[in-house]
Amino acid sequence: MSAGGAGGESRLPDFFRLQRFDEVDSTFTVAKQQAEAGAPAGTLIVARRQTAGRGRRGRSFASPAGNLYFSLLLRPTQSVVEAAQLSFVAALAVADAIRAVLPAADVRQKWPNDVLLNGGKVCGILLESAADIAHPGKLSWLIAGIGVNVVSHPEGTDWPSMSLHAAGATTVDADAVLRPLAAAFLDWMRRWEADGFMPIRDAWTRDAVGIGEPITVRLADKMIDGRFQELDADGALVLCDETGHARAITAGEVFFPAG
Ligand code: BTN
């Protein structure tokens, strides 16, 4: 691992303290070390490639050079439940950044925090956090890990994947995505801190796929069918079954019936 220069740092808002690495196992590893060592919120670990990128549900996240991989250290003072809403903040920021570099793109949100570009998953978002032992119910740190498919995307995924290059933005590189993404993240996070989850929920819902439609949700141990009623006030997916019973789901993966 080697920390590189701070190229491009001046173009990020002051909040961010950018550190660049050529190759890491995962940007989470570096960000966690720094979190435990007392680094401030805004510490931003960017890698050109990852050898052991981590995805949701214990999956690996393929991380070849050319795409954008970063972990952003935050120290939210909100409750553990509220802090999880930062995954929606991140998803809104990714969508804004994609629209900034590809203005005509069809960019949509897919629960819980996938961003779709022309129907394909264009980024991965994963939060990791540590409890604050001294303050039960609060966090010591939270790290938002974000990977954006800029030049390439994986094949053979459960849900189709997409990259910015495949969608036509062939001159865009990872830095060109990082700058608007960082700015949008800060804007949405400040909005969330000031006004709570409702404006985030409203913006996310406006661009979401599947609300009001029949869906299948893959949970850890089973698949369940129903209608996607809404995103609730905490960010859970409210699924209504055929008897009208509503259930709030906090973790899972959404699929749509074929055809
Ligand atoms: C997902 O499964 O969709 C979430 C993937 C998150 C990938 C990003 S890339 C930067 C950061 N470092 C990691 O190891 N994972 C996250």
Describe this entry's structure for a reader.
This protein is an alpha+beta fold. It is 24% helix and 30% strand. It has five helices and 13 strands. It has helices spanning 27-36, 80-83, 86-101, 174-195, 198-206; strands at residues 17-24, 43-50, 68-74, 107-110, 114-117, 120-121, 123-131, 139-148, 214-218, 223-231, 237-240, 246-249, 253-255. A five-stranded mixed sheet has the order 1-2-3-8-7, sandwiched between helices. The longest helix has 22 residues, at 174-195. The protein is globular and about 50 Å long. It binds biotin (BTN).
Tell me the layout of helices and strands:
Elements: E1 17-24, H1 27-36, E2 43-50, E3 68-74, H2 80-83, H3 86-101, E4 107-110, E5 114-117, E6 120-121, E7 123-131, E8 139-148, H4 174-195, H5 198-206, E9 214-218, E10 223-231, E11 237-240, E12 246-249, E13 253-255
Parallel strand pairs: 1-2
Antiparallel strand pairs: 2-3, 3-8, 4-5, 5-6, 7-8, 9-10, 9-13, 10-11, 11-12
Bound molecules: biotin.
Residues 26-28, 50, 53-56, 59, 61, 69-71, 124-126, 145-147 line the site of biotin.
Features:
binds biotin, disordered N terminus, 13 strands, 5 helices, alpha+beta, 24% helix, five-stranded mixed sheet, 259 residues, five-stranded antiparallel sheet, globular
Question: Helicity, in percent?
Answer: 10-25%
The first-to-last residue Cα distance is 47 Å
Number of strands: 13
User: Are any ligands bound, and if so which?
Assistant: biotin
Q: Output the number of helix runs.
A: 5
What structural class do helix, strand and pairing data support? alpha+beta
For the biggest sheet, the summary is:
5 strands, mixed
Strand content: 25-35%
Trace the largest sheet across and list its strands.
Answer: 1-2-3-8-7
Mean pLDDT: 94
